[in-house]
Design goal:
By secondary structure, this protein is of the alpha/beta class. The chain is built from 13 helices and 12 strands. It has 2 domains: about 200 residues, Alpha-Beta Complex (inorganic pyrophosphatase (n-terminal core)), CATH 3.90.1640; about 130 residues, Diaminopimelate Epimerase, Chain A, domain 1 (Roll). Helices cover about 40% and strands about 20% of the residues. Helix 2 runs antiparallel to helix 5, helix 4 packs antiparallel against helix 5 and helix 8 packs across helix 9. The relative contact order is 0.09. The protein binds manganese (II) ion.
Length: about 325
């Protein structure tokens, strides 16, 4: 609680705040930014909101999102910098230098890996979302929770928990969500429809094409799909619309490794790996790539056919003989 009190004292003492969150803005970063921004405005402070990239279309319905600037022009040198949901300053992109020049940096985050770069650090890895910490701050400040704050924080918490499905979801997370729903007549069905269920038509068109390429190898323990720059153009889709598609391969019952080949321009093939148990960062490492044990990738130059052959061969070896340390951990 001491960290909360320190932050609250600074909120009361300082008159002007620049709030900033991370690249690839998500529901937690946007929701936390807007809710805390409103808290400070309601407390009579001068507040500016920033993200190092435009607010994604699906979060544009959140009240106040039009006040978030992706440009650093309005940054105030004398304001306290409040950095939200960032484990390190690199995550703030081109705001990094301005933050580093601020006399007061308030770091509010929930990542275990947070580098404690602030003058004050309110880092709570127990919190499922930064929005959860903002909610506790509002309670500790004994402020009225407005309907817009509640909506933004509900979006923050529900997105960072994958709609209350991930392992970071605790009884406290549900209690916070329950308080938010109780405080105002939020519409969780509408919120989840907008954030989790709706997608552009181009996504479905590209999904249909990519799933049409599905192949299975190694007694159906490896599933692979292939996408290409041409497919994207044909469907009018953006490259980020491919992001979730690889999970379809990994999620097939019995499959251990899911692979997506993306044939880009200039003879480059990007390869994504997903797994249930096998360390695919080691597999990606064999091709000069890297990542996390369950999600990794690499990029190779050359003909798609021979690249695919090499990658599948290595993946088959990984399925047959997973590294001992990970094999031992299998439930
Ligand atoms: Mn977060």
């Amino acid at each position: 609680m001491r960290d909360y009190e320190t932050v609250i004292r600074l909120f009361r003492k300082m008159g002007s705040f620049c709030l900033v969150s991370h690249m690839q803005p998500d529901g937690d970063s946007i929701g936390s930014l807007l809710a805390l921004g409103e808290v400070l405005v309601k407390s009579g402070k001068r507040v500016r909101l920033f993200t190092p990239a435009a607010v994604p279309r699906k979060y544009a319905f959140l009240p106040g999102s039009e006040n978030i600037s992706a440009e650093s022009g309005g940054w105030e040198e004398d304001a306290a910098a409040v950095v939200l949901d960032c484990s390190d300053l690199e995550r703030t992109g081109y705001f990094k230098e301005m933050i580093a020049r601020s006399a007061v940096v308030i770091n509010i985050d929930h990542h275990v890996t947070n580098r404690r770069f602030g003058t004050v650090n309110l880092v709570d890895p127990q919190a499922a979302a930064t929005g959860d910490i903002i909610f506790r701050l509002i309670k500790a400040m004994q402020l009225e929770l407005t309907v817009s704050m509640a909506e933004c924080l509900y979006v923050a918490i529900s997105t960072d928990t994958g709609s209350f499905k991930f392992d970071n979801t605790t009884a406290d997370t549900h209690r916070a969500a329950a308080s938010l729903l109780e405080s105002h007549a939020l519409n969780p069905g509408m919120i989840s429809q907008r954030i989790f269920d709706e997608y552009p038509l181009s996504y479905l068109l590209v999904l249909k094409k990519v799933l049409g390429t599905l192949e299975l190898f190694g007694e159906k323990k490896i599933a692979a799909v292939t996408a290409s720059r041409d497919m994207l153009e044909h469907c009018g889709a953006q490259v980020d619309e491919l992001d979730g598609i690889i999970n379809y391969t990994r999620n097939i019952e019995g499959v251990e490794i899911g692979i997506m080949f993306f044939i880009d321009r200039g003879g480059e093939v990007k390869i994504g790996f997903r797994s249930k148990n096998i360390d695919v960062s080691a597999l990606a490492g064999r091709f000069g790539g890297g990542g996390h044990p369950r999600a990794a990738g690499c990029r190779l130059k050359g003909a798609y056919g021979s690249i695919k052959e090499q990658v599948i061969r290595e993946a088959l070896l990984a399925v047959v003989s997973p590294p001992d340390d990970l094999a031992g951990r299998r439930g």
